Recover the amino acids of this structure.
């Protein structure tokens, strides 16, 4: 015979067990999603290798599986594999899937470009004018991916702070790799150009006041001069100079409206009203960032000067997590990637502040732009 009231105790316990089970299953789901995150990257790599965004674009913006099979040159036997690849990339919102008419179960489904996959077009037409293909494609290649498998080994080294993860994996640093190969240098500059084209469009369109009142600007480490050319195009009265290492300047294009100057930012930076450092400081540790900023302070006239340094870089946590969780995740993942590649860092505001103050600057202003990066204006 059951004890009186026994059921009253069992029901709350059952609810508690059910809640525990739900939490465990949610944690289980989270772990699977996290552990298999690399598969998303490899699925994206496969789509880029096959030029699937370009194939959809060539099909008029909508492509069936049969269309994609023909456009990519895959054999008919790969149709089920292609379907599963596209299902995964649709689930991660790289592409979208539509049925026409939508209420007809027998209707043929077609894949369409999203705002994300339009950035992955590799062609030279107007649709790909902001293509990030040259910047994204290297990130999913073996050269940058394989070092990540040895992160624990690198962290256990006493010389980890002086030796990048990339160097541990490949025997030489990424800067040395780039300097030794004209092809790698060209690919690197292509990636920087692609990023700069989009970012400067956003900066000049959304925050033009950053450049108002300037008559001269030096783009420090400005590569082929894409950012400086964009500024000169928007503000023709600003005399724009690009300073970079001699081998970079020797390969720079002519006729883009800016001057090029060979130099070393650790030694000397020419004077100007403003200095631009776009995605430069994240390549370096704090000590080297302080050295660069000290040279910048000298170039804008010291503490009594009226110039400024314009930094375009990530400020981790510049937006509360709940407001833009995907932005914060992208920022911290970029931080691990740049740590692996160069021993560099993406930084939080307090880490930027310490660099500025130790270099001799007194004030700064952060303007967030949509995406990973922010604009930081630093004043003596």
């Amino acid at each position: 015979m059951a004890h009186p009231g026994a059921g009253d105790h069992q029901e709350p316990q059952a609810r508690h067990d059910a809640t525990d089970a739900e939490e465990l299953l949610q944690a289980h789901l989270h772990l699977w999603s996290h552990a298999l995150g690399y598969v998303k990257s490899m699925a994206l790599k496969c789509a880029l290798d096959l030029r699937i965004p370009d194939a959809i674009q060539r099909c008029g913006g909508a492509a069936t599986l049969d269309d994609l099979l023909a456009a990519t040159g895959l054999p008919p036997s790969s149709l089920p594999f292609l379907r599963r690849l596209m299902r995964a990339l649709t689930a991660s919102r790289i592409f979208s899937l539509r049925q026409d008419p939508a209420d007809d179960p027998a209707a043929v489904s077609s894949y369409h470009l999203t705002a994300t996959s339009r950035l992955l077009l590799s062609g030279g037409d107007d649709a790909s004018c902001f293509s990030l293909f040259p910047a994204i494609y290297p990130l999913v290649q073996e050269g940058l991916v394989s070092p990540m498998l040895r992160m624990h080994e690198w962290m256990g080294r006493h010389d980890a702070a002086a030796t990048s993860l990339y160097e541990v994996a490949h025997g030489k640093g990424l800067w040395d790799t780039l300097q030794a190969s004209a092809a790698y240098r060209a690919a690197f500059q292509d990636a920087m150009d692609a990023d700069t084209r989009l970012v400067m469009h956003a900066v000049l369109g959304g925050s033009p006041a950053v450049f108002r009142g300037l008559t001269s600007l030096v783009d420090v480490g400005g590569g082929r001069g894409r950012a400086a050319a964009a500024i000169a195009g928007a503000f023709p009265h600003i005399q724009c100079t690009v300073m970079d290492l001699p081998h970079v300047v020797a390969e720079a294009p002519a006729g883009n409206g800016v001057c090029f100057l060979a130099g070393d930012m650790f030694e000397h930076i020419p004077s100007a009203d403003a200095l631009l450092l776009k995605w430069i400081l994240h390549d370096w540790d704090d000590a080297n960032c302080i050295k660069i900023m000290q040279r910048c302070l000298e170039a804008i006239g010291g503490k009594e000067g009226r110039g400024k340094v314009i930094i375009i870089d990530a400020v981790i946590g510049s937006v509360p997590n709940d407001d833009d969780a995907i932005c914060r995740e992208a920022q911290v993942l970029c931080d691990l990637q740049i740590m692996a590649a160069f021993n560099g860092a993406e930084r939080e505001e307090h880490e930027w502040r310490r660099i500025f103050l130790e270099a001799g600057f007194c004030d700064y202003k952060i303007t967030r732009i949509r995406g990973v990066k922010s604009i930081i204006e630093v004043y003596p």
Remarks:
- The longest helix spans residues 6-35.
- The CA atoms of residues 322 and 366 lie 20 Å apart.
- The longest strand covers residues 308-316.
